[in-house]
Amino acid sequence: MNCGEKKSGCEAVGGHAADDKLKMFTEDEALVRRLSKIKHKILVLSGKGGVGKSTVAVNLAVALAMEGWKTGLLDVDFHGPSVPMLLHLKGELFKGADGDGILPVESSYGIKVVSLGFALGDSDEAVIWRGPMKMGVIKQLISDVQWGELDYLIVDFPPGTGDEPLSVAQLIPESDGAVIVTTPQDLSLQDVRKSINFCRQLKIPVLGVIENMSGLVCPHCQKMIEVFKSGGGEAMAKEMGVPFLGRIPMDPQIVGGSDEGKPFVYHHRETESAQAFIRAIQPVLQLQEQSKPETGRISRMPQPIKEKEMKTLKIAVPTAAGSLCQHFGHCEQFALFDVDADNKTILKTTMVTPPPHEPGLLPTWLQEQGADLIIAGGMGSRAQELFVGKGIHVVTGASSELPEKVVAEYLSGELTTGANVCDH
């Protein structure tokens, strides 16, 4: 009897062990299955906090979405999840998917977002968890999220090189590499060297170093003021044998936009800081182009950005002979539509004659008309950049229909877009 009881006890212990192994296997299998649908995984690291790592991660994700790539952003910083504020998503919470994982939050900037901040009911709440609990949450978070098929997943890492960054790095195998963010001060550069060595020990390619807060753009004269000095990041990258991606100057508009949840690469594209950022991230932007140039690319940019409390949009359609003009430069008049985005109805239509087509003039003019979105047949890439820089979203490839029909189809989600007939 005693032997039988002992055997029963052993079987019970063995049963628990078997259950634990099965649970671990199931979690690992789910993690591999979900991550296998993501083509490129980019890690954004810094050796210390306060260098703008999350700002870089957010704007990198938005820039990729603006290029038409299906993009996700994962924020795994326990003690300072900044992504919800930077994307105007404060107050959002995780949502389940019929008991089969976690659904990302769909940002209005066209990216799927998951942040540990969504798990906290109060953004001011301190996370006082020991290491094992954090590691369990990280693993569950990564394995349970239903990302679907993505071209890019940007991962905003916790600062430093301790347990949390190590766990995240080990749970995301075969990443394309890391973008490492620093500021020009020697104190920051010293910690960034540790991040580079961290990547080397884990065999993570270093895509390059970005020197953030590299000077200040004067709001009055637009000259550069070296507040924290500059050039240290480039010298350190050369010393460590890794690429230097560029310097991002500070700009008061960027600070204000970040506090309001408006990524500067979208809302302030015309600024030197945004242009410097776009130049700096070219190696990441080109990863998908180099592998499969058109696979997975979506046909149009994300929906136009409006604040949540605003219900109206103004849509501009270039016309010629009463129909949508296929070649943007040949348009005779613009049809401006005030629309109720919630009810998907046209409130008012106004026909206006544009000024002469001089380079860079129409984007400014349409911004003055209050346009949020332009639907066109064909438009050159440079013109599209100028419109985006003015905060005007662009949809190309629309057919030569009556402008009222084009807008109605857009509002109902039935607008069919083809090739951009003058994409140059």
Q: Low-confidence runs (pLDDT<50, min 5 residues)?
A: 1-26, 292-310
Q: What is the total domain count?
A: 2
Annotation, overall tally of beta strands: 17
Structural category is: alpha/beta
Q: What is the overall shape?
A: globular
User: How many separate helices?
Assistant: 14
CATH C-level of the largest domain: Alpha Beta
Radius of gyration: 25 Å
CATH homologous superfamily annotation of the largest domain:
P-loop containing nucleotide triphosphate hydrolases
The amount of beta strand, in percent, is: 15-25%
Could you give a short account of the major beta sheet?
Answer: 9 strands, mixed
Q: Tell me, rounded to a whole number, the average pLDDT.
A: 78
In the CATH scheme, what's the topology name of the largest domain? Rossmann fold
Question: What distance separates the N and C termini?
Answer: 86 Å
